[in-house]
Amino acid sequence: MTDATAVPSMMNAANAVTVARLVLTPLLIVLILDRGATWEVFALGMTIGLSDMLDGWLARRSRTTSSGAFLDPLADKVLVLGCMFTLVAEGIYSLVPVALIAGRELVISAYRSYWGRRGVSIPARRSAKLKTWFQGLAIALTLCPATADARWLWISLLWIAVAFTLVTGVQYLLDGSRSHETA
After folding, report:
1. CA distance linking residue 154 with residue 33, whole number of Å
2. Per-residue pLDDT tens digits for 35-86
3. Which pLDDT score is estimated for 122?
4. Per-residue confidence (pLDDT) for residue 82, from 0 to 100
5. How far is 85 from 108, CA to CA, in rounded Å?
């Protein structure tokens, strides 16, 4: 008999939404390159970004899967880093803040994977959710035609996202070392 809490199937409603985010992100990137900050690009970006809340809601109401635990943060990183590097390529963002965010994401993903293989779970903190929120907000306002002349606003939000990104990176490192000590 199988464990009632484990869901072996990769596909459930939450994972389907996450996969849709992964599939739609390249379209968003192409549209950013082709059209820039338009209402259509903004609407697609908001739809993809807000679908993260939908898949989280769906996952909390059903049994989560290990594939969902992997796919959801992957979809977040593909969306955020894909958009940010596209905005760098378009000369809208500087490489420095985006490289800091990308570097942290790579280091912490490897770190969490390392400890995960050793049976140590490092759960996300609320500050990590704020990090993702500020990253998304910076991108959204950059792609919003109504804030096209407010460069100071979205660049400020991008640097706030960098600060949250680096602080949460340090938190993960500390949480991992504490978890290892108690394990």
Report:
1. 18
2. 999 999 999 999 999 988 888 787 777 766 666 667 888 888 999 999 999 9
3. 73
4. 97
5. 19
Chain position carrying tokens 């991008």:
158
- The Cα–Cα gap between 176 and 25 comes to 31
Phi (first) and psi of residue 3, to 5 degrees: -70, 130
* Angstrom distance (rounded) from CA 27 to CA 138: 19
Structure tokens at 11: 């596909």
Characterise 144 by phi-psi region: left (phi > 0), alpha (psi -120 to 50), beta (else).
beta
pLDDT-derived band at 3, boundaries 50, 70, 90: very low
pTM of the model: 0.85
Contact call for residues 18 and 75 (beta carbons, < 8 A): yes
Query: Residue 41 and residue 28: Cα distance in Å, rounded?
Result: 7
DSSP for 15-36?
A: HHHHHHHHHHHHHHHHHHHHH-
Asked if residues 131 and 161 have their Cβ atoms less than 8 Å apart, the reply is yes
